[in-house]
Amino acid sequence: MKTNNKRKYGFVLVAAALLAAPPVKAQSRLDDYIRDGLASNQSIRQQNFVLEKNVYALKEAKSMFGPDVTFSTTYTKADGGRTIDFPTGDLFNGVYSTLNKLTNSNAFPQLQNQHILLNPDNFYDAKFRTTLPILNAELIYNKRIKAQQVDLQKTEVQLYKRELVKEIKTAYYNYSKAVYATGIYESSLRLVEEGQRINTKLFDNSKVNRTVVLRSQNEVSRINAALTGAKKTAESARYYFNFLINRPLTDSILLDDITTLPAREQLLGNNISGREELAKLRIAKDINGNLTGLAKSYIIPKSGTFIDLGSQAFDWKFNSQSRYYLFGVSLEWNLFSSGKNSYRVKQTIADGQALASQTDYVQQQLLTELKVRQTTMQSAIAQYEAAQSQLKTSQTYYNDMVKLYKQGMAIYIELLDAQNQWIDAQLNANIALYDTWIAYTAIERANGSFTIQQ
Fold it and tell me: DSSP state, 19?
């Protein structure tokens, strides 16, 4: 039984050396899962679509500085309405009659007075118009705002990624914790089953009473139930982890061999400059500055130019007489608007003050979060060190009780107590180890220190 114990509990001896091992950060399998999760997560994909939309909006804003060419045509058919009366007959018929008499001919016909319709009848006008802005402050500010909105959405995507990394790492550590707890229960089950076998044999040889056998059976049932619960916990943790990285829920998960504490330098410092929340507020402040400039742009006149190339005539004629061009320059200056523009400026200034106040509040909030996370990790490390001490003590205690029990110097209840203490110590050491990594992940999120590959 002593040889079996050494073989079954070998992993505990490794755990007992955790405190002496140097901290490591390399977790290649977890890093691979993080990359897969960032590449396949549906929420991030949705945010990338929004980013793509903002990029196109920026391109649209830039294109507004270029020329626009439009084609337009009109055709009118009219009858009735106002006319201009021109007395052609009254003016020329007398002269024409005299000329016909002098020339003894009818070369000069009699004319009718004209009634010219003001509305054009059977008339078309077709043209290409090219317009180009020369000075328009609204377009300048609009382009700046669109560019900053692209930066804002990039930061939003980065924020989603950072939160996803935290969730993936936490889920990974919780799954690892559950898997290793399952292993501890499986090892414990073999231990209590062996104890049941030995106690049954001792009972058959009248070395112990029936109560010892019944307690052994109860321990087997208890560990079996705990093992079933641990397996279900591991299964649920696997489902959630696979969900985060967008894989089939039942896919297996490869685990890194984590036997050391995370680096402790994260326990120091108050640097939260890497938080995307603050970056978003800084960009929002810049956008607000340009919105203020946009509101004030009414004091700058707008100017532009245009040229028309077209043709207009009656009866669909197209010739050198119908073709034309028209060139012009426009100027627009808002001189009076009943205070609407000044009110817009005051609104943007008020928004800027609100953003400044919000930035101070969020900065203090994030700093408080970092301090809380650092305290949590300090507590987790203390729990881990205590668990390691308890693990060593309980293992020694259990080994001593095994020897005493074999020599008949200890009763079974004492051996059972030592055994349960040892099992609990293994579980606590396993929980404490992964709790330190979960706390470390929370600090990474709180100070934005994890490097996300673009």
Answer: G
What tens digit of pLDDT does each residue of 37-90 get? 999 888 888 888 999 999 999 999 999 999 999 999 999 988 877 778 878 888
User: 3-class SS at 258?
Assistant: coil
pLDDT in tens, 341-383: 899 999 999 999 999 999 999 999 999 999 999 999 999 999 9
Question: Which domains are delineated in the chain?
Answer: 2-70+136-303+340-447 (1.20.1600.10), 79-119 (no CATH)
The rounded distance, in Å, linking the Cα atoms of 225 and 229 is 6
In the sheet that 302-314 helps form, which strands lie side by side, from edge to edge? 68-76, 123-135, 302-314, 323-332
- Beta partners for residue 83, in sequence order: 117
Distance (Å, whole) CA 46 – CA 330:
44
Specify the 3-state DSSP secondary structure of 113.
coil
Residues 6+ apart with CB under 8 A from 143: 58, 61, 62, 64, 65
Q: Which two tokens stand for residue 449?
A: 């220190």
Report how many helices (DSSP H) and strands (DSSP E) the chain contains, helices first.
10, 6
DSSP 23-83: P----HHHHHHHHHHHHH-HHHHHHHHHHHHHHHHHHHHHHTTS-EEEEEEEEE---SS-E
First CA to last CA distance, the chain: 55
